[in-house]
Amino acid sequence: MTGPLHVLLPAEAGATRAYTPRGEPLHIAAGGPPPASRTVFAAAHVVADPFADASPDGPAAVDWDATLAFRRHLWSHGLGVAEAMDTAQRGMGLDWPGAAELIRRSAAEAKAVGGRVACGVGTDQLPPSAALPQVVQAYEEQLALVEAAGARAILMASRALAAAATSPDDYAETYGRLLRQASEPVILHWLGPMFDPALEGYWGAADLDAATDTFLEVVAAHPGKVDGIKVSLMDADREVALRRRLPRGVRCYTGDDFHYPELIAGDDHGFSHALLGVFDPLGPLAAEAVRVLDTGDVRGFRALLDPTVGLSRHLFRSPTRYYKTGVVFLAWLAGHQTHFTMVGGLQSARSLPHLARAYELADTLGLFPDPALAASRMRSLLTVHGVPQ
After folding, report:
1. Crossing angle of helices 208-220 and 236-243, rounded to 10°
2. Residue 150: which of 189, 122, 109, 178 has the closest Cα?
3. Higher confidence at residue 214 or residue 23?
4. Which of 11, 300, 329, 383 has a CB 3.0–4.6 Å from the CB of 292, allowing a cystine?
5. Cα angle: 86, vertex 89, 91; to 5 degrees
């Protein structure tokens, strides 16, 4: 048995090692205004209802009170919320009816508290084998709902479009139709296959240079209709090259959870804004870092954010699409929810050693408001999994 100041973490070959938790959290001022020099969205997770008699392939059972409370937490620190994105388990536990309800509730809550919200528009009400006209109709249905809720739309990459499209022209025509009817400028989201293997060859080409050309042609062909692009390819050099080719006034929102500090800091030719899943667990720290950057203090910004990259790379390691498990796990340890249960049973998608390492990295950074609570919850999880404390 360990003492109250230690946690026995799993080690190799069935052994354990003692870890001493950090005694005090990193001091971050409570709340704060939105960052001024960068537009920053945190893609937020959903909180499952642990008392629902739900099955992995059934409709998601969501704890709406806890889910909206977490969004208020992000808004209180000045961050925007990117809603109903892949972090919220779109297509991995949260179906379209659940996502539609999430969008309506989150947009209404944003209006009530003065928070910024942008919502994912996709085609996940369709089977993967849908024909191209059905894909367009599905996008239109979701776009109409998001706009009726008063939120900015994020046109997400579509599995159904990837399956139905036969050429780059199919992408250009589909997105062109949507952009022409959008009432407000939208964010275009290019999600790489590391997040969803079904999106391989998006924009009509497996070659990323050719895909980038098609993507940029769509943006350029619809001036005033694209607020920005969100790029999640985990390739910093490619993102920098892409953002330098954007028309004036079109933002680049980094979705690169491996290289975000350098991309947000930028260079002499520009910088990226942010729309990141890792800003769900990093919310207060990320907001504080960007407010430091607002003052022109790049060194101070990097000093705050660079140490978080190790945790982010761990959470998003291959298979990357299961990063949501680590995000929800850290929210539980941080006290934002009372349980470690996910819609679709996705809490089982990462191993115990993976979760233990995520705990250690987050605790070392001082991310837990109550380190003792996090340690207690970590011990309880380990005990249930056969690692006595």
Report:
1. 30
2. 109
3. 214
4. 300
5. 85
Phi-psi region of 186 (alpha: psi -120 to 50; beta: other; left: phi over 0): beta
Local confidence band at 28 (pLDDT 50, 70, 90 cut-offs): confident
pLDDT band of residue 4 (cuts 50, 70, 90) is low
> Any idea what DSSP says for residue 83?
E
For the question of whether the overall pTM of this predicted structure is more than 0.70, the answer is yes
* pLDDT tens figures, 305-352: 999 999 999 999 999 999 999 999 999 999 999 999 999 999 999 999
Residue 329 and residue 352 in contact, taking contact as beta carbons nearer than 8 Å:
no
Cα 84–chain centre separation: 9
Q: Which residues contact 41 (CB under 8 A, 6 or more apart)?
A: 79, 80, 81, 82, 116, 118, 253, 274, 275, 276, 279
d(CA 238, CA 249): 20
Length of the chain: 389
Dihedral pair phi/psi, residue 315, rounded to 5°: -60, -35
C-alpha to C-alpha distance for 110 and 81, rounded to whole angstroms: 9
Residue 5's pLDDT band, with cuts at 50, 70 and 90, is confident
CA distance 197 to 200: 6
Rounded Cα distance, 159 and 173, in Å = 16
Three-state DSSP at 234 gives coil
> Which positions ≥6 away from 68 have C-beta within 8 Å?
105, 106, 109
The structure tokens listed for 329 are 């796990």
d(CA 384, CA 381): 5
pLDDT band with cut points at 50, 70 and 90 for residue 245: very high
Per DSSP, the residues of 272-290 read -EEEESTTTTTHHHHHHHH
Q: What is the mean pLDDT of the chain?
A: 95
